[in-house]
Amino acid sequence: MVGLVGGGARAWRLSDEAANGAGGGGAATEADYMRRLHGHAPGENQCTSALVKHIKAPVHLVWSLVRSFDQPQRYKPFVSRCVVRGGDLEIGSVREVNVKTGLPATTSTERLEQLDDDEHILSVKFVGGDHRLRNYYAGVKAV
């Protein structure tokens, strides 16, 4: 399973689904992972969303693709190009991402906030670009 978390267009919570018994077995576990990954509750005029995707592949294989902060195009088909400023891949590194045409933006500047190889967590803050995302974080957790 890979969970993608970030500011989204609608206020839907995986934990609500788990509490209602929807989503089949394991939903409570997924909700726990999402709560750990978020780190804060959304405030007024904020929203949150989660996308959970089950992938039939070993976690180490999925993580080897997802953890590549310098190559998001390996698993994000809408990314056409990525350049990391400064060359180092560590917390605080910044990447310039170009996205393919047809999306409402063409560039995004993103900072690496968390990279945890033990927990398989990658977290990124969007710090610039020609999109409307402000105070936006995205995280990925492979389990």
Automatic annotation (TrEMBL):
Entry annotated with the keyword Nucleus: yes
Any one cellular-component term (Gene Ontology): nucleus
The keyword Cytoplasm is assigned to this record: yes
Organism encoding this protein: Triticum turgidum subsp. durum
Record lineage: Eukaryota, Viridiplantae, Streptophyta, Embryophyta, Tracheophyta
Cellular compartments annotated: Cytoplasm; Nucleus
Family that this chain belongs to: Belongs to the PYR/PYL/RCAR abscisic acid intracellular receptor family.
One Pfam assignment: Polyketide_cyc2
Matching CDD domains: PYR_PYL_RCAR_like
Biological process per Gene Ontology, one example term: abscisic acid-activated signaling pathway
SUPFAM superfamilies hit by this protein: Bet v1-like
Name assigned to this protein: Uncharacterized protein
Molecular-function annotations in GO: abscisic acid binding; protein phosphatase inhibitor activity; signaling receptor activity
Keyword tags: Abscisic acid signaling pathway, Cytoplasm, Nucleus, Protein phosphatase inhibitor, Receptor
InterPro entries noted in UniProt: Plant_def-hormone_signal, Polyketide_cyclase/dehydratase, START-like_dom_sf
